[in-house]
Amino acid sequence: MNLIDSVAQCRTPFMVCDRVSGKVTALNNTADCAELVTQCPLRYVLTDEVTLLCADLAYSNGTGTGTAACADLLRAPAEKLWVEWCQEPWQRAVRQHGFTGGPADSRWVGRRGTWVRSSPDGRRGLLRTFWRSGADDVLASSVEAYFDFDTAAGEEPEPFDGAEGAAARVEYGGPADDIVGRCFRFRYERSWSRYYGGAQLSGEERFAVWQHAVGTIALDVPVLLAFFLLLATRTGLPQRAQTFEHLNRRRLRSGQAPLLEHIEVRVPMLPQHPHGPRDESRATRMSPRLHHVRGHLVRRGGQLFWRVPHLRGSARHGTVRTRTVTWS
Fold first, then answer.
1. Within this chain, do residues 258 and 315 fall inside the same structural domain, yes or no?
2. 236 and 170 in a common domain
3. Residue 286, Cα to own-chain centre: how many angstroms?
4. What does the pLDDT read at residue 284?
5. pLDDT at residue 308, as a whole number
6. What is the mean predicted confidence (pLDDT) over 206-210?
7. Cα 206 to Cα 214: distance, rounded to the nearest angstrom
8. Does 83 have pLDDT greater than 80?
């Protein structure tokens, strides 16, 4: 079952008990967001290949700043939006690029999702993440993030919902123009803010809790931005609508909740490399050796293009098998 269905069908409130006073508190979590997620008119489910592609674009060079040069083209594709992906390939990319993404055990082999609410132009908004770490455990982040892609350097983004309260900046390092650090701010959801505000925690404990909480959402943001850019390319991404009309009729007859329709997103197909003889009239003395070119975004003015991975050059001049050099 996709994560969005687990969230939409969740009815169990999230309750915590103070071990000292015995007081029970209800905190905003998955059940409180079920209706919001169900009402999303646009829902995307990424294949593992798209997840890896977005993660590579997001975390390239160990930073979350690969989209900074295209910040003016970024926008959420709908005012209410859901995007989800499998956690295993995402976490593999997180570890590969040097970030800490949680323990690498079976508890974290599930799915992740992000709910987004934005302005009509898609330039300002609010988001929250969800994940499933086991058979039944579906959780929402205690931290949410608001963004404004029109935030200039040195300015602060305005909260999308106008709510007052403390918000923190998360920086990934690397280039000075970090779009996450410039355009995003992270804060506790209101009920969680009140809960931790009343907890008798030391400064060190408070910081440790915040660091853990913000870690459940911060690394998802660059992946989401990379996905938005890929959607904005001239040809976009291959999409296939998933409907469950017949299945849902059977589920309703058996008393089960219907599954939500969504759009499955795939990577662009790889082009076929011509193995036949090369046209000598087009070849030059300095033709490159046959080599692999990784997929990458190309910007020309106000348009984005996704150049799929491909082979380039002529095998008669040699073949580049790897660009990795190992020193010993």
1. no
2. yes
3. 41
4. 47
5. 56
6. 94
7. 12
8. yes
Q: What is the mean pLDDT of the chain?
A: 81
Phi and psi at residue 83, to the nearest 5°? -135, 130
Instruction: Name the domain boundary from 240, 265, 290.
Output: 265
CB-neighbour burial class of residue 204 (10 A; exposed 0-12, middle 13-18, buried 19+): exposed
Looking at the 3D structure of the chain, how many domains does it have? 2
pLDDT of 113 > 80? The answer is: yes
Q: Find out whether 31 and 69 touch, Cβ atoms under 8 Å.
A: no
Asked whether residue 212 falls in the same domain as residue 310, the answer is: no
More confident residue, 212 or 281: 212
CA–CA distances in Å: residue 322 to residues 61, 121, 254, 256: 18, 43, 56, 52
Q: Can you give the chain as a three-state secondary structure string? A: CCHHHHHHCCCCCEEEECCCCCCEEEECCHHHHHHHHHCCCEEEEECHHHHHHHHHHHHHHHCCCCCHHHHHHCCCCCCEEEEEEEHHHHHHHHHHCCCCCCCCCHHHCCEEEEEEEECCCCCEEEEEEEEECCCCCEEEEEEEEEEECCCCCCCCCCCCCCCCCCCECCCCCCCCCCHHHHHEEEEECHHHHHHHHHCCCCHHHHHHHHHHHHHCCCCHHHHHHHHHHHHCECCCCCEEEECCHHHHHHHHHCCCCCCCCEEEECCCCCCCCCCCCCCCCCCCCCCCEEEEECCEEEEECCEEEEECCEEECEEEEEECCCCCCCCC
**151: number of Cβ within 10 Å:** 19
243 and 291 fall within a common domain: no
Q: What is the pLDDT of residues 172-184, one digit of tens each?
A: 655 545 888 899 9
pLDDT more than 90, % of the chain: 48
Q: Is the pLDDT of residue 309 over 90?
A: no
- Residue 142 is predicted with a pLDDT of 96
pLDDT of residue 120: 96
Structural domain for 308, as ranges: 274-328
